Amino acid sequence: MKELAHSSPRRGSFRVFIVGGGTAVLLGWRDSTVDADLHADRDEIFRDIQEIKERLGLNVEFARPEHFVPPLAGSDRRHIFIESERNVSFYHYDPYAQVLSKVVRGFARDIEDARQFIVAGLVDPERLRSLVRGIPSKAYAKYPALSPEAVRQTVETFLDAGGRSG
């Protein structure tokens, strides 16, 4: 985060969002992640990302939950502030959107991360249910591999298991 902030353009301000494994590492749920998933409100913040990646030996992906699952209402108001450095403010991406994406993907590590969001009190199961039920059917048009019923059922199964896998 410091390297990205120090390389940021001097004019203007930026918001960078940490997603997925990066959130899990920063919150202490994991020691490491394969890559750092990032999203920003303005792409020019990433102008030096190749040099930063190479110098620090990092793998960076530009991803956010809406690349994989339909958006949840109010997501832009649920990002969690981490810190500001220079003219860059860092946030954990909306925990509800992260949980939905992880549960739909369904890998064991993703399910454990999703469970940790609930254990940490960052996601309320009933609110998650409500948000997922509130996704309009037409929102699934951009996600041909997903169906509203399958997504709702996957989330229900996860929550009915108490946020545990299997």
Element string (H = helix, E = strand): HEHEHEEEHHHH
Radius of gyration from the alpha-carbon trace, in angstroms: 16 Å
What is the count of β-strands? 5
Multimeric state:
single chain
Summarize the structure.
With 166 residues, the chain is an alpha/beta fold.
Write the layout of secondary structure elements.
Layout: H1 2-6, E1 14-19, H2 21-26, E2 36-40, H3 49-56, E3 60-62, E4 80-85, E5 88-92, H4 95-105, H5 108-119, H6 125-133, H7 148-160
Parallel strand pairs: 1-5, 2-3
Antiparallel strand pairs: 1-2, 4-5
Helix pairs in contact: 4-5, 6-7
Task: Write a concise keyword list for the protein shown above.
single chain; 166 residues; alpha/beta; 15% strand; globular
Can you give a write-up of this model?
This protein is of the alpha/beta class. It has one domain (2-160). Helices cover 39% and strands 15% of the residues. The protein contains seven helices and five strands; from the N terminus they run αβαβαβββαααα. It has helices at residues 2-6, 21-26, 49-56, 95-105, 108-119, 125-133, 148-160, and strands at 14-19, 36-40, 60-62, 80-85, 88-92. It has a five-stranded mixed beta sheet with strand order 3-2-1-5-4. β4 and β5 form a beta hairpin. α4 (95-105) runs antiparallel to α5. The radius of gyration is 16 Å and the shape is globular. The N and C termini lie far apart (35 Å). 32% of the residues are buried.
